[in-house]
Amino acid sequence: EKGGFDWFMRKEIFEQPKAIADTLLGRYSARGELVLDEIRISPETLRRIDKIVIIGCGTAHYAGMVAKYAIEHWVRIPCEVELASEFRYRDPIVNPQTLCVAISQSGETADTLQAIRHAREQGSHVIAICNTNGSTIPRESDAVIYTHAGPEIGVASTKGFTTQLVACYLLGLYLAQIRGMKYGDEIRDVMDELQQLPAKVQELLDHASTVYELAHQLADQEDYIFLGRHVGYPAALEGALKLKEIAYLHSEGFAAGELKHGPIAIINPDMPVFVIVPPQGRDQLHDKVVSNIQEVRARGARTIVLAEQGDEHVVQFADTVIGLPTVSTLLQPVLAVVPLQLFACEVATALGNDVDQPRNLAKSVTVE
Ligand code: BG6
After folding, report:
1. Best mutation site among 153, 363, 368 for ligand 1, i.e. most ligand atoms within 8 A of its Cβ?
2. pLDDT digits (tens, 9 = 90+) for 24-54
3. Which residues contact 1 (CB under 8 A, 6 or more apart)?
4. Does ipTM surpass 0.90 in this model?
5. What is the distance in A from the centroid of ligand 1 to the CA of 175?
6. What is the pTM of this model?
């Protein structure tokens, strides 16, 4: 049942090319249009939406953070991301012009369920992004975009996360399509890029042994830092969460730009710092993150840099470089997270932990 793998989690990491391809399947017409028939909220209603609130817990919440960047860029609707457990209890502003997007792999998380119940009571429309057919959250939503990742057994989410990202991109592009987007060509370009993701994820998986070697070199370390900026920030948070969940190690994700406002004080010599570098591009983001690598290196940190293949600028400041296939910035988390999943899985295995059933955690938490 584990298909020759030691853990369900490792098997699920390796299933990601297929899971992503299946999530895209049938959702793009030959005419270059997005088809999301499952969205049973009328285009008229969706055109009137003036705010989007994205709700989730844990990994799903990080997928929501990426979604905010993508949706605001493509659709130009203000988008908030909120932890489901915080949402209901702070008297949030939601009304019939609000679209609530609930992200949940299991579809049974009590915090998320209570949050959408509250949103619907206020007249808000709810779209679920979910991996489990017929589960409670989709049943209580107006519409659902299913991620077709197949059952996820490992408690730490992997293919659940990357397919949530894909579903969020699809939702963003769909909203852009029906609201008439000024970047019409961009929809097609992004769809083309999405179709190429399975092959690029596969390329990263083909080099898993490099990440495993790194895991064995670092397995005696007890504190880890993950840095990223823009959508690399939630990817960094997700890398840190994987290590907490299954390796029980102290790991923190920070927005790289915040480093100088506090976190740099905790850098010790030899501390492993993973840095996700945005693709080299038009803006200055890339160069700023490269400066952050220099800054932590200067304090003796061991730098593990995830950067676009062929990015010459990072080499001199990196103890280890993990090359990522070329992709546009907004889609980069789908690739960046894969080596981080492999790393956490291998460290946890080396430490002798039960990777699929980590202590103190449950796959779906059905109490608030
Ligand atoms: C947690 C799980 O309790 O719930 C996490 O341990 C998961 O892995 C989170 O990300 C949210 O779960 P779901 O099913 O709502 O996506």
Report:
1. 363
2. 999 988 888 888 888 989 999 999 999 999 9
3. none
4. yes
5. 26
6. 0.97
